[in-house]
């Protein structure tokens, strides 16, 4: 676009800015604002946060020959080494604009999203369809200033766009994509190769407070870099990971220890689904991971990882308790022995339950209870006499085991 004089240029810039302000006032939506920016500037736009995690874009679907854009739109974040490669100037400089070079076919102009003295993110304009002019640079700066207002207004709830992988994973979690062959084809098209054993990890704070948007995106980037997987996404204000491993269990994967350290550092807790192999089960396993988190909150568990598979019986008991009197699950023998324990300060209940849990093995049970083998042998005989029970009866032993879990859950809930 050509202008006759400086006045025409300034009027055009003012009109563009006025269009941005009108859209911001009407929608309060970053994506809509980017769409207007793309229409005015005629170039693809991308918004990333300070950790270089993808937030939103407009016009990116038209980019066919730029690996950087394809990578970030597919995976949702910028690889560490690529970030260092493309920066001509240090991003920490006080300049409003930075040119990024080092990409294969195009350079891009980056405007910092700044509120006060705090950098909130970066707005990237790809020099794809024509050379970026000084007027477009000024318009980009005005657009970035308005985005800064939206990003710094905590009362506004943003609906950030997702990468292609994230959007697809969300469609699996929400059961929008359920056909096994379609799922497999989509994973192949996105070039995602998974190892044979799968888990869903749902992550949220140990406390009941939600993570701020900035924290979510920072932690998502850290998880991307730590796990070296594109299958990390944000859903319903939680961090979700489709975790794949060739190890025989989640605990044996080499990422187990560093992931635990990261979660502890940020006071986070993770619900771990059961192991699965079919991608069509993602939605079900996502619910299992959430159930593990809910159970952890309900019981006041402080574990960093809460495994659904280790608490299946607890889930069944608590589900029953939501609509029935939980005491119906407890065998009368446990109730009677608990009463004796309270009167005489004995340990009959814990001794019996531990004995059953260790398969009625006297040696292992005595070691667990830190008592002598003969002491335990006498105590078990006394328990059988007092409760009038037959520990050779399999059904009775199973009921006693169920009673024990119920009894322990009752005590855990009382103490939370």
Automatic annotation (TrEMBL):
<dbReference type="InterPro" id="IPR051448">
    <property type="entry name" value="CdaR-like_regulators"/>
</dbReference>
<protein>
    <recommendedName>
        <fullName>PucR C-terminal helix-turn-helix domain-containing protein</fullName>
    </recommendedName>
</protein>
<comment type="similarity">
    <text>Belongs to the CdaR family.</text>
</comment>
<feature type="domain" description="CdaR GGDEF-like">
    <location>
        <begin position="178"/>
        <end position="294"/>
    </location>
</feature>
<feature type="domain" description="PucR C-terminal helix-turn-helix">
    <location>
        <begin position="351"/>
        <end position="403"/>
    </location>
</feature>
<dbReference type="Pfam" id="PF17853">
    <property type="entry name" value="GGDEF_2"/>
</dbReference>
<dbReference type="InterPro" id="IPR041522">
    <property type="entry name" value="CdaR_GGDEF"/>
</dbReference>
<dbReference type="Pfam" id="PF13556">
    <property type="entry name" value="HTH_30"/>
</dbReference>
<dbReference type="InterPro" id="IPR042070">
    <property type="entry name" value="PucR_C-HTH_sf"/>
</dbReference>
<dbReference type="InterPro" id="IPR025736">
    <property type="entry name" value="PucR_C-HTH_dom"/>
</dbReference>
């Amino acid at each position: 676009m050509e202008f006759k004089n400086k006045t025409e240029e300034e009027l055009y810039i003012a009109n563009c800015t006025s269009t941005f302000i009108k859209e911001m006032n009407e929608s309060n939506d970053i994506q809509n604002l980017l769409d207007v920016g793309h229409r005015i500037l005629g170039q693809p736009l991308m918004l990333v946060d300070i950790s270089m995690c993808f937030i939103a874009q407009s016009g990116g679907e038209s980019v066919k020959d730029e690996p950087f854009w394809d990578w970030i739109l597919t995976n949702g974040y910028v690889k560490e080494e690529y970030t260092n490669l493309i920066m001509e100037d240090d991003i920490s400089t006080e300049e409003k604009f930075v040119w990024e070079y080092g990409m294969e076919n195009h350079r891009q102009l980056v405007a910092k999203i700044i509120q006060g003295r705090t950098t909130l993110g970066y707005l990237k304009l790809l020099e794809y369809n024509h050379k970026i002019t000084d007027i477009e640079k000024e318009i980009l700066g005005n657009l970035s200033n308005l985005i800064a207002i939206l990003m710094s207004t905590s009362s506004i709830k943003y609906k950030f766009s997702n990468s292609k992988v994230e959007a697809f994973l969300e469609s699996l979690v929400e059961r929008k994509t359920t056909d096994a062959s379609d799922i497999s084809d989509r994973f192949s098209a996105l070039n995602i190769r998974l190892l044979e054993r799968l888990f869903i990890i749902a992550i949220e704070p140990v406390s009941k407070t939600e993570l701020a948007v900035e924290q979510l995106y920072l932690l998502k980037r850290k998880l991307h870099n730590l796990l070296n997987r594109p299958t990390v996404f944000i859903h319903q204000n939680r961090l979700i990971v489709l975790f794949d491993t060739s190890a025989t269990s989640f605990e044996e994967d080499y990422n187990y220890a560093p992931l635990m350290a990261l979660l502890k550092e940020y006071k986070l807790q993770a619900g771990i689904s059961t192991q699965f192999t079919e991608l069509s089960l993602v939605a079900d396993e996502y619910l299992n991971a959430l159930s593990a988190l809910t159970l952890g909150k309900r019981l006041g568990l402080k574990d960093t990882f809460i495994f659904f598979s280790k608490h299946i019986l607890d889930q069944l008991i608590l589900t029953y308790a939501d609509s029935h009197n939980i005491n119906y699950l407890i065998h009368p023998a446990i109730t009677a022995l608990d009463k004796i324990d309270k009167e005489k300060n004995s340990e009959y209940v814990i001794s019996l339950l531990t004995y059953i849990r260790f398969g009625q093995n006297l040696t292992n049970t005595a070691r667990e209870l830190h008592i002598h083998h003969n002491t335990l042998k006498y105590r078990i005989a006394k328990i059988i006499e007092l409760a009038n029970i037959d520990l050779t009866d399999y059904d009775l032993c199973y009921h006693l085991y169920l009673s024990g879990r119920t009894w322990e859950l009752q005590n855990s809930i009382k103490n939370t």
